[in-house]
Design brief:
Shape: globular
CATH topology of the largest domain: Rossmann fold
CATH architecture of the largest domain: 3-Layer(aba) Sandwich
Radius of gyration: 24 Å
Number of strands: 15
Number of helices: 20
Strand content: 15-25%
Largest sheet: 9 strands, mixed
Helix content: 40-55%
Amino acid sequence: MGAGKTSAARAAAAALGARAVDSDHVLEERLGSSIEAYFSSHGERAFRDAEEEVVADLLEDPPSPVLSLGGGAITSERLRGLMDRHTVVLLDVDEETAWRRCGGKRPLARDRARFGALLAERRPLYDAVADAVMLDSSREVVRRAVPALQRLGETPPGTRMIWATTASGEYPVYVGAGLIGSGFSPVAGAGHVVTDPNVDRLYGHVVPAASRVTIEAGEEAKNLASAGRVLERLAEAGLDNDGHVIALGGGVVGDLAGFCAAVYQRGVRVVQVPTTLVAQVDSAYGGKTGVDLPQGKNYVGAYHQPAAVLADPTVLSTLPAEELAAGWAEVVKTALIAGGPLWKRVRSRGAQPDADLVQACARAKLSVVAADERDSGARQALNLGHTVGHAIETVTGYARYRHGEAVGLGLLAALTLSAQPALREEVADLLAERGLPTTLDPSVDVGEVVAATGRDKKRRGGRVGFVLVEAPGDVRTGIPVPDDDLRAAVAELTR
């Protein structure tokens, strides 16, 4: 209720030159009364039985290429089975927005508490049937997403899509096993691949390329010199504004290739094809690109949203164990920010980085980015653990710790600053379970780490605002931290 499915369906149908069919309207025609009146006189059970028959007829013999279904249709096992034949699009809406639109206007929207409980109860079913998720259901956004929705049929079975929306652009995120090597390309023509030798050896031969350039693996290669070499190679290969860059690799490749795409001829398209857990759950989305300077991480960069993202979780099986573990720190960070079902899943022992987890993390991040692309407010929450983490990377010359390992340590420092000892202990256990460090190497100078946080690129007015945690799902941004408290939190990492 209140997701905007009727107007969204009309927009999608108009893009296809057709008319949408709304199951609620068809149902009212068959009942000979309004849904509200029938619900009141016959009760919910009779209404659901009637709804099931109408929706089943529509799904078995669609009168239109676009159907909009009532929010309760997914509670029928029979209808969920019939939906398997179709592309099911979920219009994701938060409880506050949905209640504002329909509170007091529907039979099941009379009581706010019950309304929230109903949404929480149905959400797992919505997520289970959805082939695609729209984070913005406005008519123009839906219309622009239709070609990407149609292309889902070209992807390997089981692939799901999220339509990412930002102030500067929109793009599809495809998540599915077997995407790399399937021949599916979300952008016409062969791209110019940027990768590293390890990824090129494993997957370079299955990704068609107009040209190919490799950079050294590891954070130490994410610098201006590497960017210069990539830009020169792209120019030599004749990349123009009709072409695109393919970032095939982990976070380093994605950041550097995205930056090169942002500045090459003042901007060309980039398709992110993340091959590490860090990249698949975090860095491939949101458009932050950049390279490091000796003075600080990501000191040179640009916001440049991708043209598309292809995340294939099967490639994670080729990662070294320590690289997979490093990515888990970003999973924990995202779960702490999102709370709810994602935190419940991540805190459970034995959780695995499969397609569902990758999609859930991507969706959580993209929801934040949709509200704040340029880090002016809500997006700052995504920096949880990164202020101290980046400082550790800078002080150690980007050589001692993988990015995820440093972020894990930064999370622990943030939870100390948040005065959350029990949560800190739980997160430390989750990190240790994956083989991640929970203490700082004694050779790392605490004072240098503290000083490096003061040079963080996100500082405003000469001060760094920290992201602190009240509880999973409740994080606060821009919090000033006294120097002594920061030093104590970093020092605790040495114990």
